[in-house]
Design a protein that fits this description.
It is a single chain. The protein has 16 helices and 13 strands. The protein is α/β, with parallel strands linked by helices. The chain has two domains: 304 residues, Alpha-Beta Barrel (TIM Barrel); 56 residues, Alpha-Beta Complex (Type Iii Antifreeze Protein Isoform Hplc 12), CATH 3.90.1210.10. The strands form three sheets. It has an eight-stranded parallel beta barrel with strand order 3-4-5-6-7-8-9-10, surrounded by six helices. A two-stranded antiparallel ribbon has the order 1-2. Strands 12-13 form a two-stranded antiparallel ribbon. β8, α9 and β9 form a beta-alpha-beta unit. The protein starts with a strand and ends in a 21-residue tail after the last helix.
Length: 372
Amino acid sequence: MRIGDREIGVDFPPYVIAEIGVNHDGEVTRALELTDAAADAGADAVKLQFFETDRLMSKAAKLAAYQRNAGETDPIEMLRRLELTIDEMELVVDRAHERGIHAIVTVFSTELVEIAETLAWDAYKSASPDIVNKPLLEAMARTGKPMIVSTGASTLDEIVQAVGWLDNARDRLAVLQCVSCYPAPDSALGGITAIADATGLVVGYSDHTAELETGQMACVWGARVLEKHITYDRLAPGPDHQASLIASLELRRYIELSCAHTILSEAFCVATGHSKGVSTDNVAGYLSAMNMAEQTATQKRVLDCERDVREVSRQSVVSVESISAGTTITRGMLAIKRPGTGILAYRLDEVVGRTAARDIDGDVPIVEEDLQ
């Protein structure tokens, strides 16, 4: 796999994505500052999230537990506060390229892929909850650009299903093991091997743990892509700050540790200014602290802390407006939005052509009982 001029695989350094996400707090100036910090630390790419709240959230939307724990009270107001416009994101893309790093975007709605394509993104990434969003995954694949699929709160069967939808994009596809808890209490690194064995693809790790060393150990398990959230302040208000690295203080060290525990050429470490031969004295203690004994089983599993994410953050087939009982449902009556409490997005085509068994309110997930 290749992103831009960067080869990714077992014979190359880990590809490190500094995830800005929504830690810009809706301020493009802050996103630019985090981009500069990521470039200074030696990251390969920064990543943004492109969403429009009204396209993503139905009126049934809920907060995940980690968002409530971060002090959020309203899911729709939270996301409105954290949006960047496409024009603002263009400034970040340009800054990343000026600094010699890539710009990657996670798009959350199928309709926004075409808009995203007006910018010079180097790759697309799907969020973990969209492992079941077949229309969105296929839309990103049709761009012809490299694609990264995250797998938090997913089963191995769901991952294999999604990879099957993207079969024509295999040569430009990577899959990331992920634990969708913030911060993650268990790194579940055994999932890296399980995904690699099941898919035969380049595999990486989206790291939501609090430890600097997790990326290092993920590389030992076979990760060739690392993603880590970055922030300017872990105590800042917002859903993701507390599970992030301080970009200006910690990201370089994270990359150094990861560099030291992969099959790298000395030239790479020297050229990028990363330390060689980082001490491994702390590895035994780290393995114990992260319950690595449990992770020797190469399995991909849904952790207890991820279960509400499957419901809250996945996307369902949703009614665009009220539908009367007896109406034959057309594609124009449907959208795909959160939460994942209805018929999941990949079954959209199954809903088209069916008859409403009862009156269905507008902007709500459609469930089987709504249909004949």
